Amino acid sequence: MSSVSDTLPITETTTPGDASELAEVVRSCHETETAIYPIGGGTSLGYGLSAKREGIGLSLAQLASVVDYPARDMTITVGSGITMRALAEILAAERQRLPIDVPGASQATLGGVVATNFNGPRRYGQGTVRDHVIGIHAVDGRGLSFKGGGRVVKNVAGYDFCKLLTGSLGTLGVITEVTLKLKPIPDRFAIVFCSPTDLNQADRLLAALVNSETTPCAVELLVGPTWTADKQFTDLSSSGSSLFLAVAVEGTEPEVEWMTKQLGDEWRSEGVSSHQIIEGHAADELFGSMTEFPSSGESPLVLRASIAPSGITRFIEAVQSLDANCSVQSHAGNGIVIARLSEFPSAGLAKTLVGNLQAVAASAHGNVVVLSNPGGSEMTHQSVWGAVDAPFELMSSVKREFDPKNILNPDRFVYVS
Ligand SMILES: Cc1cc2nc3c(=O)[nH]c(=O)nc-3n(C[C@H](O)[C@H](O)[C@H](O)COP(=O)(O)OP(=O)(O)OC[C@H]3O[C@@H](n4cnc5c(N)ncnc54)[C@H](O)[C@@H]3O)c2cc1C
After folding, report:
1. What is the pTM of this model?
2. Is 330 in the pocket of ligand 1 (CB under 6 A)?
3. Nearest CA to ligand 1 atom 13
4. Which atom, in ligand 1's list, is nearest to the CA of 412?
5. Which of 94, 149, 200, 320 is the most exposed, having the fewest neighbouring CB atoms within 10 Å of its CB?
6. Residue 228 falls inside a structural domain
7. What is the pLDDT of residue 229?
8. Does residue 40 line the site of ligand 1, with CB under 6 A?
9. Domain-located, residue 12
10. In which domain, by residue range, is 232 found?
11. Distance, CA 44 to ligand 1 centroid (Å)?
């Protein structure tokens, strides 16, 4: 992972001790029109258009404490600088959790996860981080504090700032505090696993899952060398195929007992010759590999497509025809495909994306974005963010309202002022 100063044009990094100190820093940067780059765990500072304007790093490391945790109400309010691992440990003590699995959890912070709206495999059964944020405090580009939502799940009148700030990449406000609604940790977790012979069989199994009587929490289609190099996966696969379908289920003992058996029966009727049911440590390890995949290892280019689930296998075929050694993870039930390429496309980024993959994604009503391009070449707006169909001018005016001098992560996101 590259260092902060390699990724951001910063002259210094300041670490405010609390939210009012942070607001003071932003206020003075507003006066001097100094660019501010919020820093959580620094695990995906390369996400977005390359940062060009020199400025300061603003670390949230000191805003990492628990503000309020009424476990009985299944909500928690914490500083945005808390790491996902530390948060999970606090919640586990009450047998509760935020069912969002992110890579690098010991570094990634809640503020960074909310700002990037990154979500892991459990988004299928448990929803995304946006569904769990019920309250938010932030500081806008003038240094003014504002908040949205609250400490309980309530539908208050007015614009939903929780949803607006989720995925806004720190361009509308620096998130200082978040209130989350939580879920209980289930009694049992299992993964039902098979190796489709090819993408056609995988497509049929994914289509059949839509009508399954079970309620999986994750549906993962995995393709390529990262997975075939992993003994965990090859040991489980009898067909020698480089395709793996992993469906995770969780709940009470009897629920999981029933769902694993039911899925096995459904797959047998779909012609799957063999499947495995994995539990305990092996299942946690397998799920861990799937959670870490998006940012594990070195890749010259990492892409993410968000498309209609029925277009998944076609998109994977298109990526494989570009790079036969690419590794792919698909949150298949949600139409998300993450592709880690083994080499930078010889045709260049623009031709590969604008001229090819974006068209394939568009044919499945979706889009492709660049998650990581360490080399940094050809990071144009259209390559990085793909086809943006939202009203550009309206969105840019929202940006101008929150950050009139464009100092928050300037010109890194979709909408520039
Ligand atoms: C290539 C790659 C792919 C990834 N794919 C996934 C994935 O598919 N699913 C997944 O769950 N995770 C993914 N991640 C992990 C991701 O790094 C983290 O989940 C998380 O988004 C980043 O947390 P962080 O605290 O390290 O944020 P940082 O890397 O510090 O910051 C990320 C962005 O958020 C902004 N930001 C950070 N904190 C705040 C704040 N408090 N207020 C406002 N803006 C803020 C930063 O300015 C920056 O633009 C991926 C990471 C990489 C490198």
Report:
1. 0.95
2. no
3. 118
4. 49
5. 200
6. yes
7. 86
8. yes
9. no
10. 188-293
11. 4
